[in-house]
Write a structure and sequence with these properties.
The structure is a single chain. The protein is mainly α. It has 25 helices and 6 strands. It has 3 domains: 208 residues, Clc chloride channel; 222 residues, Clc chloride channel (Orthogonal Bundle), CATH 1.10.3080.10; 137 residues, CBS-domain. Helices cover 63% and strands 5% of the residues. The protein has a 4-stranded mixed sheet. A two-stranded antiparallel sheet has the order 2-3. Helix 17 packs antiparallel against helix 18 and helix 20 packs across helix 25. Pfam families: CBS, Voltage_CLC.
């Protein structure tokens, strides 16, 4: 045995003797939080170093040629994927959610460092995406592989992956409470003391890591000076409706752009077309360049001219309605630029682009109210912040995360009431219009989505392979009744027999009840075939298509006790209701214990 494995084995034995499972989870939460914080800090520093190098060493910005840079970044990511990683880029958080529901929380160790390469290349060269998603997937992969190293069970591994995700958010935004709420809302954790304390520990340790390396540096420099007034309630409701429509647009345009890019046959074609599209958008709307934190901070400071930067429309910038139009253009095109970056082969996250879009939309609504001519006045900075929360609530279906994130970013709860008004309106309208989010739609279609509904989550966690039984004696249609009795019934403990043709296809089934009244009539043994007695099953389970939700529904609708499983058009086995319910009960106990 290698020496490293020997040391690990000794440590595990010592741990089982002297450290309880609960305390060990607390210790791992600290470690996971520290590692997630280090990942986030590393990701930010690499990206900022690339940005600084490009600003100092290249004169693109002086010549208004900065829009070329994202294409170079996408090309570098393309070359890395093709010649080094040799595996397609997966969307960050959906890949983590899929691993939790269908892979027991197992993530490939390469996902620890691949995002640390591809995300800085994408964002550092100006790709219109965020760093939070890659930080989450890298931290989650670290947590997953650490759990495997220490032989942690599946349920605790899920909790530690959620801790890593919370740690990444806490480190980037320095908002530990929002990070905990995000893990609960997005990862569908039960908010119990057993899960809350590890999440809290991981978030705090990650925030401390961020403070250690980055000091008191914060993403948004803002303090609330305009407090909430009762007369503004209607305006915040209007903002909630606006962010709801913005959220629906964001999600729909995301899937529409991806669908459009799927028409291209090769990744080279997607890179070329996507790179050109991003370059054109950046030329006309410079704030789409990169993550967009500078844009948000300028809006919060009331400096919309700096936020918009140098555009082809500078001659008309003195007109407030031109400013409003340009800001609304950012609201519209940020989602397109972000999705185009993904479709062209870039890596990143959607949370920070959502904040950028929400800030622009909130500022637009405030400017319209202030300049429409009815004598109304609202705080543009407050609407900028609350707009960010409204869009986060709508796009991610995470209202509490949105509220606490902005509350922590502003350093207090002065905007708590307007946040609740706008966020609740945005969430209600968006949830009614779109059941699933960008993160969850594809997973829901695959039957791989974990939710707060315990019944659905247990079915999602179940694996159909574990409930398929193959110990059935197969019959052929040409077999005589006598042969069926001697070779099938006499040798089987089952009362069900699949009838299979020469191509291993299921052509029917026979129940013992179907032949009970003739099985002792020897005159029929040689003149009657299996084909005479067989009939179609009540329903079929298609291995490639049917998840456990559909399987359970088919049993409910058909009233059958056994249903055949068909894989690639051929008979595979049967699923029995009794085994299905036994497996369900076992998984439910594991899920809720």
């Amino acid at each position: 045995m290698p020496k490293n494995n020997s040391y690990l084995k000794r440590f595990l034995i010592w741990r089982y003797k002297y450290i309880s499972q609960k305390n060990f989870v607390f210790l791992l939460s600290i470690l996971v939080g520290l590692l997630a914080g280090l990942v986030s800090v590393t990701l930010k520093n690499i990206t900022f170093s690339i940005e600084a190098l490009l600003e100092k060493g290249i004169v693109f910005s002086q010549n208004q040629l900065y829009f070329i840079l994202p294409v170079i970044g996408l090309l570098l990511v393309f070359l890395f994927v093709k010649y080094i990683s040799k595996r397609p880029i997966e969307h960050a958080i959906p890949s983590v959610l899929f691993s939790l529901s269908k892979k027991g929380g197992i993530l490939n160790y390469k996902k620890i460092y691949y995002p640390l390469i591809t995300a800085p290349l994408t964002v550092g060269f100006g790709g219109s995406v965020g760093l939070l998603g890659p930080a989450i997937v890298s931290g989650a992969s670290l947590s997953s592989n650490l759990s495997r190293l220490f032989h942690i069970d599946k349920k605790t591994r899920t909790l530690l992956i959620a801790c890593a995700s919370a740690g990444a958010i806490a480190s980037i935004f320095k908002s530990p409470i929002a990070a905990i709420v995000f893990a609960v809302e997005v990862f569908s954790l039960d908010l119990t003391f057993a899960s809350l304390l590890p999440l809290l520990i991981a978030s705090v340790s990650s925030v401390l890591t961020s403070y250690f390396f980055l000091g008191n540096e914060v993403l948004f420099n803002f303090k609330v000076t305009d407090t909430f007034a009762l007369k503004d309630t209607v305006f915040y409701l209007i903002l909630g409706v606006g962010t709801a429509f913005g959220s629906i647009y964001f999600s729909k345009i995301y899937f529409a752009v991806l669908k459009f890019f799927n028409r291209f046959k090769t990744s080279k074609q997607r890179l070329i077309f996507g790179g050109l599209a991003i370059g054109i958008m950046l030329y006309f709307i410079p704030p789409l360049y990169g993550e967009g934190f500078g844009f948000i901070n300028n809006l919060l400071a009331g400096d919309h001219l700096s936020a918009l930067g140098k555009t082809p429309f500078d001659d008309y910038i003195d007109n407030i309605w031109v400013v409003i139009t340009l800001l609304f253009g950012i609201t519209v095109f940020k989602a397109i630029a972000m999705t185009t970056t993904f479709a062209a082969g870039g890596t990143g996250g959607i949370i920070i682009p959502t904040l950028v879009m929400g800030s622009a939309l909130g500022n637009v609504v405030a400017k319209i109210i202030n300049n429409i001519g009815f004598g109304f006045h609202v705080s543009e900075a407050n609407f900028t912040l609350v707009g960010m929360a409204g869009l986060i609530a709508g796009v991610l279906h995470a209202p509490l995360t949105a509220i606490f994130l902005i509350a922590e970013v502003t350093g207090g709860y002065a905007l708590f009431v307007p946040l609740m008004i706008t966020v609740s309106m945005s969430f209600i309208l968006t949830k009614n219009a779109m059941e699933y989010t960008i993160y969850t739609r594809e997973l829901a279609e695959k039957g791989a989505l974990l939710t707060h509904d315990k019944d659905k989550s247990v079915l999602t966690l179940m694996n159909i392979d574990n409930v398929i039984e193959t110990s059935f004696i197969k019959l052929s249609p040409e077999m005589t009744l006598g042969d069926m009795l001697h070779k099938g019934v006499a040798k089987s403990s089952r009362n069900l027999f699949p009838v299979i043709n020469s191509e291993e296809q299921l052509v029917g089934i026979i129940l013992l009840d179907d032949i009970r009244n003739v099985m002792f009539d020897q005159t029929l043994y040689n003149c009657t075939s299996v084909e005479t007695f067989m009939h179609n099953p009540p329903d079929y389970i298609i291995y490639e298509k049917d998840n456990m939700h559909r399987v359970m529904k088919k049993f409910q609708n058909s009233g059958a006790w056994n249903l055949p499983v068909i894989k690639e058009g051929k008979y595979l086995g049967f699923v029995s209701k009794s085994k299905l319910l036994t497996a369900y009960r076992r998984e439910l106990i594991n899920f809720t214990s």
